[in-house]
Specification:
Length: 190
């Protein structure tokens, strides 16, 4: 009987989740994050109830977009007054505020009803991995990334780079000549 109480508590409480947005698509990530914000991962989910969890998103300045969406995708805003229309491309909005692209992606994924402002208050965005200690103390679990993050060349050791199999050897006539390093002037001690 006591086990059921623990299950009920874990379902009813608001958990804190961590999501790393490094090299992740903002739109695909928003689809997954919003499920946790709305509480769709819980068995007691109902569209009219506010039972979602908190989500902490780190590394939002390193989000990725496919093809040339940084250049072509635009965000529009209208104040409601005459001449109040403005439009900004994704890269410009990202330069102004590194968390804004992820914020707008999550905001657009939530259905436009009276619960949206309360749901968005539980989204905590950080441009890098520097999260305040009082927030890190609350985090209980991590949301799995959508896309696999490839290793950078710097992440491989020199031994791994040297042992990587080569498919063929380049002919000498196809290779670029190596640039000679400028020789330091030799001074003769007298």
């Amino acid at each position: 009987m006591a086990y059921n109480r623990v299950l009920q508590w874990s379902v009813m409480t608001r958990s804190w989740w961590l999501y790393d947005a490094e090299n992740q698509c903002a739109f695909k990530s928003a689809r997954k994050i919003v499920n946790y914000l709305q509480g769709k991962h819980k068995p007691i989910y109902h569209p009219l109830s506010d039972i979602g969890d908190h989500v902490v998103v780190i590394n939002t300045k390193l989000v990725a977009m496919r093809d040339d969406r940084w250049r072509k995708f635009t965000y529009s805003h209208h104040t409601g007054y005459a001449g109040g229309f403005s439009r900004a491309s994704a890269w410009r909005l990202h330069d102004m505020d590194p968390t804004k692209v992820m914020h707008k992606a999550c905001y657009q994924r939530i259905k436009g009803n009276l619960l949206r402002p309360n749901i968005m208050r539980r989204l905590h965005l950080f441009p890098d991995d520097n999260v305040p200690d009082e927030i890190m103390a609350n985090i209980s679990d991590q949301i799995q990334q959508i896309q696999i993050v490839p290793k950078q060349l710097e992440d491989y050791s020199q031994l791994e780079r040297d042992n990587f199999p080569q498919i063929f050897e380049w002919p000498e006539k196809e290779m670029m000549p190596k640039k000679k390093q400028p020789e330091l002037l030799q001074t003769e001690d007298t």
